[in-house]
Fold this protein.
Amino acid sequence: MNPNPFDVLSDPVLFVDDALIASKRGVTRTVHPGRKHDTPVLRPNPDKPWEHGGEDQSKRVHLYGTTMYDESVGVYRMWYMCRMGPHWRFRPHTVPGLYIPRPGRNPSTYMGQTHDAHGRKFVENDRGDLTCYAESDDGLTWTKPNLGIFEFNGSRDNNIVWDLHGASVFRDDDEPDPRKRYQAIGFCRRYRAVFLLTSPDGVRWDDSSHVDPVAERENEGSLNVVYDDRGRVYRAYAHARGTDRDARRMVHYTEASRLSGPWAPLRPILGATPDDDAVGAQKYGATRAEIHNMSGFRYHGIHIGIAGTLYVTGHGAAEHEMPVDGPIDAHLIYSDDGVNWKYPDAEPTPILPRGEPGAFDGGMIMGTATQPIIRGDEIHWYYTGARHTHGRPLHERYKAIGRATWRLDGFVSLDAGATAGVVETVPMATADGDLCINADARGGSIAVEVLGPDGHPQPGFSADDCVPFSGDSVRHPVRWKCRTLADASRPLRLRFVLHRAALYAFRGAAARSSEG
């Protein structure tokens, strides 16, 4: 039992675990997959060769990075990544300042130069990572504006803004310099390190304020950075290899008080478990599981994340340096501190199900945006779907970006059937005001009791006194016939009685939905 009463007015209580539950019976914890939009919201375009290399080449756009609803301009914004592939495999393209074909694999040069104007040595400036920009009025129909910032094969009609391997973007309204209102951090192949960019508008970026890398990083896997406003810390979740015999992919972690650093050394925090191995063997005949990618963010009093589990089924296409093949499933994870992550003790259901074979996301959920967009009473999380599995040849590779939606607080619920389910909380402190529940009881009912120290209902707060709820609402105020919550003695201890209902969360009336 929690020794410190929980302030129910400060945060909604989600049922990802039993931290605030004293006892429960007759209920099942259920993970709710997101409702996927029927079609991709962003596809690789055949007429944009930086996204679509041709019939015998890869066709892929990735979302390693940020989506946001930018209140200052009133639009949804996305910074996504394209991959053209190294020039020795395909017809070379030229993007002066970002991507220049070299005569062979080595040395790495830019128009005959081995270093840039700041003296930084080029390491790998022609592997084809390009950061592109898109925007939308409704979050579903996206445009790729011709920005005119960089030339691509001699034309400025494109939406290329930089060449990070995934851009985590932040808007800082407290920044005194309007030229640095936006900041982006990510891995840059040109120098194989992590760099920080600044921008007045989120489109025209500049690296001159941070010429030196802000963090070192050898590999180019996903690096998702978020800001934890309560901890006042930037948290980064990085794809890297472990030290086991198979050098399995796993998630490493670092943090810093500022984007410019200093960043703590990367350390492993989330790897595949024997249970993951067993699931992969049972579902796919996999030899092992690996954690391929992860996004995680502060959600009120806890942290919510999505981890992509790669189930290794065999060798990949050796001619394209793909070591292993297999599907990737996306699972819900949660954490109390943003560092130590766990799965809910529910049936291991993918939180983002892969599509049917042949669908744009039928082979892999390749990753999600750094965090979802929460607007009104819905949560929208954008993700990269892949038609192919991990190790297929490049000419089979097709990736597009989709969107999944949940009700507010709707990742997990406690569900009861015809037999009554009962959930009792630990004692909780609360100010006067309403108690609200997020629940779907359209086929049944939910009643709430307020218990005394002896475990019995306080006078006027029994299930019979409660006005039962039999609807569907993300914020339904609980009522009793003759009493208000202000009449109950503190600390509160609640008992929820469910019949054919799903209870997602409860909160005080002062806790409203997040927007932005």
The chain has one helix and 37 strands. The chain has two domains: 6-32+413-508, 35-409.
